[in-house]
Amino acid sequence: MPDAASAPAARRAAIGAAEFDRDTAVVRRAPGVYDIDLSAGWTIINAVNGGYLLAVLGRALADALPHPDPFTISAHYLTASRPGPAVVRTDVVRTGRTLSSGQASLFQYDADGQEVERIRVLASYGDLDALPDDVRTTAEPPAIPPMEQCFGPQDGPAPVPGSSAITDRLMLKLDPATLGWALGSPSGKGEMRAWFGLADGRDADPLSLLLAVDALPPTAFEIGLKGWVPTVELTVHVRCRPAPGPLRVSVTTRNLAGGFLEEDAEVWDSADRLVAQSRQLARVRLG
Amino acid sequence: MPDAASAPAARRAAIGAAEFDRDTAVVRRAPGVYDIDLSAGWTIINAVNGGYLLAVLGRALADALPHPDPFTISAHYLTASRPGPAVVRTDVVRTGRTLSSGQASLFQYDADGQEVERIRVLASYGDLDALPDDVRTTAEPPAIPPMEQCFGPQDGPAPVPGSSAITDRLMLKLDPATLGWALGSPSGKGEMRAWFGLADGRDADPLSLLLAVDALPPTAFEIGLKGWVPTVELTVHVRCRPAPGPLRVSVTTRNLAGGFLEEDAEVWDSADRLVAQSRQLARVRLG
Fold first, then answer.
1. Are the Cβ atoms of B120 and A99 closer than 8 angstroms?
2. How do the domains of chain B map onto residue ranges?
3. Acyl-CoA thioesterase-like C-terminal domain location, by residue (chains A, B) (predicted)?
């Protein structure tokens, strides 16, 4: 099967008509109330991926707020989501000329049909296309080998037991230098780097960046830790509309201590722009 | 006047009895409702310092939640605060065994006495003293000269016009390598480093770390930009109770673009622990 990222544009799913759009679509039931059936297609080790969930909340806020793009969005993950019915409730906090702020919560239903809050989010939105193009970024793109020298889940046996349907939604090619964990030899360094895209060829957009920052294997795997590394909180800065083509994602952990670690992600587009930066606080099981 | 940071412990203001505690104290008027008179003593270029405001909100949440310490706290700054009466309203979002989450808003009053929201915060709290002491931090403390070779506002003419009362509350000694801006020769590098403490000698604690991450001059000054750099959003991870003694704060900007920049701050204590990490998104006036 040809690599979706290199498929001719005519065969790639368009932004708005792709799996990611279908699975993050919310239906406005009333002002500030949006329904969705969370997809089972974006699970990692049986858990619904946190970046996918953030994108769902981000899409609802984009509808609720007068500005279209998340500039900075912070999510606190309260209880574990599962595929199935959910509702997002949004509040407009403040509307301004260039920035608006909002809050959103995602709820699911317990056995009695009562709403249980899964995630709460605060965000400030703006218009990325209205930003001046004065770019003085001093950060440099990650050193990652060309895509043909990188490897994805399809290239070897499934290294992580349990269903991870998300791997079928993504084009993920990991830097071999951050793949030791999959071969039983973790590097000991808290780093993870990959080429990233969507399997159906959909180009990136500001909302799919919210997925991209949380879609790589945990840096904990390269540190030699196993098991689930649940996200407590994730904050993403979206700084630029990504250019078409594959993204490069680089994740770093430098402060594993006391049963927690931080993961810092940078997302670079094909025009060498640093289009998103994120930091999450996650829990680890030590030993 | 002897350096407060080196004053004998008996002369240093105790945690709980110092300026910082007096000026961040909130009075619970009712469950989830706290009054405070925001101090004029923590202003920078006439604006109330964002870290001081975050500490006020953090103190209210510490009272409202069953866990004492902020682990991760995200603030969106909506409108500019000013010294004077304010109210903080908190909501408990979820209580758990090791983590609890809450939300808080700070309001002030307009000419008609109506509440105007200044800041909204989401946070997850825990107990820092209950964390295992397994520390695998790979980050290293900043390279900063000994305190005696660093310089604070008291060491030269005031380089920033306008009242900045906060400088009287702090023991701040900047790395000469990040002081070029004060001498008319900014380095061009988005870096700011300093030894940090409180002027009355109070040791750091988890709440004062919320101040520390936002208390240095803006990295924008070293990039050669002048003027106000208002914070849009600030997220702080508090990872460890700081040891007594001065802190080292290192701030870096790598992505100045489109009229915004990020500031990443690290706070290191006297035991060489990385006690706090933060990232803020701020607006700049270009040109």
1. no
2. 4-127, 147-283
3. 160-284
